[in-house]
TrEMBL record:
EC numbers on record: 2.3.1.20
GO molecular function terms noted in the UniProt entry: diacylglycerol O-acyltransferase activity
Record keywords, A-Z: Acyltransferase, Glycerol metabolism, Lipid biosynthesis, Lipid metabolism, Transferase
NCBIfam families listed in its UniProt record: acyl_WS_DGAT (TIGR02946)
Record domain O-acyltransferase WSD1 C-terminal: where: 319-464
Similarity remark: Belongs to the long-chain O-acyltransferase family.
Record-given protein name: Diacylglycerol O-acyltransferase
GO biological process, one term: biological process involved in interaction with host
Tagged with keyword Transmembrane: no
Domain O-acyltransferase WSD1-like N-terminal: 5-270
Amino acid sequence: MPDRLSALDASFLYLEEAATPMHVGGVAVFERPRDGFDHEQLLCLVSQRLGYLPRYRQRVLAVPGHLARPVWVDDTDFDLNYHVRRSALPSPGSDDQLFDLVARLMARPMDQERPLWEAYFVEGLEGDRVALVTKTHQAMVDGVGTVELGQLILDTAPQLCEPYEDTWTPRRMPSATQLVLDAISETVQQPGELVENVRAFVGDAAATADKLADTVGGVASTLRTLVRPAPAGPLNTHVSGGRVFAVVRTRLEDYREIRAEHGGTVNDIVLAAITGALREWLLSRGAGVPASATLRALVPMAVLEADTVEFSTAGLVNNQVEAHLVDLLVGEPNPVLRLQHISHAMRAYTDSSRSVAARAMLKVGGFAPATMHSLAARAAGSFSGRIFNLVITNSPGPQQPLYAGQARMTRMYPVIPLARNQALAIGVTSYHGNVYFGLNGDRKAVSDVGNLATMVEDSLEELKGAHW
């Protein structure tokens, strides 16, 4: 039987547009070790690990007449050098130059006639540092058969990449006739699939939305707030093809201090810091922010299967990342009250669902946040942008150093994609004593995303200094 894309995976391909590429990204910064770390060593490392990720050497092949969803087939022309590319900043390159490059790379759709991932080895960073920028399409990462590349190439100790012989041989690509025969055979068993496939491909929005709702496995039923249109504001606009990217680096200890003083979880405090920053950002733009003003965030959270005792990525079957709607009270001037409002809202979800605790997620091997952000983006992508203003994903990472080869990773920033009418997405990851924010914005609608990033830091400091 053909390895056919699921309805959800196919929808990410059908709905992709030039201005809204549907890939999740990551920016990892490394210290170059004394023995060096170059593009050839990265190629060696990735090549060694690809055997664990068969999907990374497969491409999507459409069925003639779109009689069925596309299939995954081995890329007979697979070229690792095409996917693991070399780039450089004018030395000494600054962080700002790196993040401008990230914005440009993330704005580019990927070639759907090749495996849907790319990695860029960026040299020239000041301080003898290098960066790895990854892009992985949402159609690829399901958390079970395929994890994100960043989870696989990072180790808890330095590793030498020894030369080895790659024995992978691609399977022959099926002919057009075989694709049609397979589609007809499946249609006989499920005749409704033919109509759904054709309607989804030609852009029938209603059919696609219905199919998404069914595919996600009832994710919409997990929303325990009244689903109504999101508050109007500058974050919901038709996005352009350009992107801006800014980052925030904060100390994990600050969140623990705030938690000890005011309660809540680290995730609650992350959301509260973002809420305060959004309030100041709206005020800086001259927007009216009455006391009752809110912005609605779509916050995906990993959950366990009902009979799962211990968390692992294998437990995340059937897209077990639930997307919750959380109203951020940007009209409230008191930072402690903003935090309490969020803690109350999030408690309603965690008490009534199987949400995964941060300590459980830290048991997953490799850099699990890379995969978790991809799964979160998939969950968010299944909702209409009309019911939320922005996406915020948060996935805890390990608190010990990780290495790519012999290079130690010092920072990691997630890059969450934008939807058609959503101008801002924020990814958050904790790693080795710090909490890292990646703010991905539309270049026209949120050109001042750097100001918003600074306001996140200010908002956190406001919470630290607040007394109740």
